[in-house]
Amino acid sequence: MIHADKAIITCAVTGAVHLPCQSDYLPITPDQIVEESVAAAEAGAAIIHLHARDPIDGRPTTDPEVYGQFLPRIKQQTNAILNITTGQPGTFEERMLAPMRFSPELCSFNMGPMNAALFAMLPRYGDKVKHAWEREFMAMTKGLNTVNTFEGMEYIARELGEKRGVRFEFECFDIGHLHSLKFIADQGWVKPPFFIQSIYGFVGGLGANPAHVLHMKQTADELFGDQYYWSNLAAGRNQMKFITLGAILGGNVRVGLEDSLWDAKGKPARSNADQVRRIRRILEDLSIEVATPDEARAMLGTKGADKVNF
């Protein structure tokens, strides 16, 4: 692992998993996404990770026209690195529409398939939905697999990486995903330094066990040596303790309402910025300095905000 002097804070402001019925504070409209992103950047997030939602009912969308309603505005109001997902629900072609059009500095890059299990939330939220699609969305995940084939990975690497100069946040939901990254690196599709995001506590992925954090780092060290930056995120109540553990081990951190709707036990998060401020305080109490957006750019080797298409 590359041991940097400062830690990068990423904030994932809305995501595609949490539903409007779960939180009144989840940003839905472009205005809300802009407001939450700007506040998170002002609080200390160097990277803003972005999904899009239908402004009317909050369902996840891959429509580039919706992305176009908030990307330029966030760029104008912050210096943060904007990271567009390639993992939004939809076909592979649909998931690539916004990244291909806008050519951001950074994109997420899922390193393998993922079986979401939102259907398990039906007993708790099935009668509390704000929109009919929420119940349907939860139910259909029982038969849903988020497909990430090697063919798709090569396409992302060629079209976004080689042709558009996009750098990647390699999202690893399991140990095997690290080996997949090593495989595509050996094929020459992607090049270091790698920005690896280890993920814990989502059903269908690696469980929330502190031993897994150590295993992730040990495996990544064996595979990539000093050619990667490491970051961690965790679902729900596991968020802060797992990313703090990762930070103590020298990693970077990710927070945001995509990953957790909680600010503390029994206390719903009212904003993304609150989570950024909380982890920033923890980092600084641990004598870990927080990287600015330009420092994060230098670490990750991004092309710069002046070379995106928005």
From TrEMBL:
Which InterPro entries does the UniProt record give?
Aldolase_TIM (IPR013785), BKACE (IPR008567)
Question: Superkingdom of this entry's organism?
Answer: Bacteria
Q: Tell me which UniProt keywords the record has, alphabetically.
A: Metal-binding, Transferase, Zinc
Give the signal peptide, or none: none
Keyword Transferase among UniProt keywords: yes
What cofactor does this one take? Zn(2+)
The cross-references to PANTHER family, in alphabetical order and at most eight, read: 3-KETO-5-AMINOHEXANOATE CLEAVAGE ENZYME, 3-KETO-5-AMINOHEXANOATE CLEAVAGE ENZYME-RELATED
Under what name is this protein listed?
3-keto-5-aminohexanoate cleavage protein
Classification from the root reads: Bacteria, Pseudomonadati, Pseudomonadota, Alphaproteobacteria, Sphingomonadales
